Amino acid sequence: MKKITSYSWSILFVTILLGLWEISARLYDKSFLFPSPSAILIRLWELKTELFIHHLPPTALTILIGLSISIMLGSTLAIAMYSKKPIEQAFYPILIASQTIPVIALAPIFVLWFGYSIWSKVAVTVLITFFPITVSVFDGLRSSDRNLRELMLTMGASAKDIFYKLDLPSALPSFFSGLKVAVTLSVIGAAIGEWLGAQAGLGYFSRRMMTQFDSAAVFAPIVLLSAVGIIFFLLVVVLEKHFLQWRNHQ
Amino acid sequence: MMTNKVLEFTNVSFHYQATNASKPTAIFDQVDWHVHEGEFVSIIGPSGYGKSTLFRLVTGLENPDSGEISLNGEVTTKRLGKVGYMPQQDLLMPWRTILENVQLPVELQGGKPTADQIIQLLADFGLAGEENAYPGNLSGGMRQRVSFLRTILTGSNVLLLDEPFSALDAITRLTMQEWLIDQWQKLDKTIVFITHDIDEALFLSDRIFVLAERPVQTIREVIVPLSRPRTMRDLARPELMELKEQLISELRSEARL
């Protein structure tokens, strides 16, 4: 019951916002420029086969592959930086600097390298999600308790024991925070990748509809993209709840 | 009483290296010290006089610059894993259940007790039915008992307890002190107990060691003139009041510096 009341304010706000949008769109009455929410939903329904069968799967796949690569590479780099100081000193500044590169500007080069295949979109997704994952895992590892580490040493723990039984569990909460950020960014990454060159995908479809002045059909895949982001986010929340059960007992 | 020395310092000197923030600090200067098998001894002294360093040396987290430390009659620099250490904060892992926390030293050293045996031990420690709870659910006193059981399960015959009750309220503390003596008598272990509470030291210990100089050259020994079992009322005896006065003035003259 508490959950419902805690969401009710945001539901109310969104409803008012959508209501205002609907009214103003109807008053303006140029649906090819400014479609109403109801028009978007209707278009979404009309395009359902095309969107769900042809365009949703490649985008979802891009997001999944991109995130998996980011998690693997990011965690590996974070662990390497945590275990060897020279690696940290070599990579940390580069990592920060990489974030000042406008990813969108780099995306065309990926198209050049990887062509119109899925890999150019995956590359954009990885580039955009790698940073939050690496930093969150690294910070998580560094947050492990020094006193607990010494206590484990007095129990005869090896470096390996300390890594698996102390450092990794300590990094988990921070990893999940980073993953939540990365999941939302991955949707953006996949969409940007598709704008630049693709044969299918929600981002690609949205852009194609723009050239046809079908603005309701521009919005329809965006609604889907956002739904995909929310679903992936909730999935992470479920995983987090499962792996961090102890946090409910604080 | 002529029993074996389980722990012995011979001519031990130790100092901390200079860091950016501090000069090199000498903590011990040719110190001799020993503890007999089965004893309960306390170490008292103002903060910063080497109590924690003494523990770090005994556990093997640090080794002396010169001199020798022998454990169970054997001089060794590899003492990690051989002495049970109970820290001041309970340092339970919040992501492990009580049972998993207590099992930590068993996991690390491949000890004998099975989960069933540990659950029985938890029950003996007044923690029946808590094995699947998380540390966040337990009170401070319960967490300290879990931490103590974890220390016992290191299997070491020497247990170092570093101000384990300092964060507890007065009543819980009193109960825990009586409980600890009870456990010590059952367990047949040697206990070295750090405290800065003189009453606590008098009530618990056979001998008290006073660290009150910097660097420490001699550790002064005070024998507590009480037989066991003891009650808190024994501390009100004139000879104990006198001993307490004496210890207070000794520590105070140092702490003022």
Order of helices and strands of chain A: HHHHHHHHHH
* Range of strand content of chain A: under 5%
Looking at the structure, the CATH topology of the largest domain in chain B is Rossmann fold
Considering the protein shown, what is the CATH homologous superfamily of chain A? MetI-like
The overall pLDDT of chain B, averaged over residues, is: 87
Instruction: Summarize the main sheet of chain A.
Output: none
Task: Write down the overall mean pLDDT of chain A.
Answer: 91
The CATH class name of chain A reads: Mainly Alpha
**Total domain count of chain B:** 2
Please name the CATH topology of chain A.
MetI-like fold
Going by CATH, the homologous superfamily of the largest domain in chain B would be P-loop containing nucleotide triphosphate hydrolases
Shape descriptor of chain B reads globular
Helix percentage of chain A? over 70%
Can you tell me the residue ranges of chain B where pLDDT is under 50 for at least 5 consecutive residues?
Answer: none
Straight-line N-to-C gap of chain A? 22 Å
- Structurally, the number of domains of chain A stands at 1
The N- to C-terminal Cα distance of chain B equals 37 Å
- Taking all Cα atoms into account, the compactness measure Rg of chain A is 22 Å
Main location (chain A): membrane
Transmembrane segments (chain A): 60-82, 94-116, 122-141, 175-196, 216-239
Protein name (chain A): ABC transporter permease
Subcellular location (chain A): Cell membrane
Give the SSE layout.
The complex is a heterodimer of chains A (250) and B (257).
Chain A: H1 2-28, H2 37-46, H3 48-83, H4 85-98, H5 103-114, H6 118-142, H7 146-154, H8 159-196, H9 202-211, H10 215-243
Helix pairs in contact in A: 2-10, 3-4, 3-6, 3-8, 3-9, 3-10, 5-6, 6-8, 8-9, 8-10, 9-10
Chain B: E1 5-16, E2 25-36, E3 40-44, H1 51-59, E4 66-71, E5 74-75, E6 84-86, H2 98-109, H3 115-124, H4 140-152, E7 158-162, H5 170-187, E8 190-194, H6 198-204, E9 207-210, E10 220-223, H7 238-255
Parallel strand pairs in B: 3-8, 3-9, 6-7, 7-8
Antiparallel strand pairs in B: 1-2, 1-4, 4-5, 9-10
Helix pairs in contact in B: 2-4
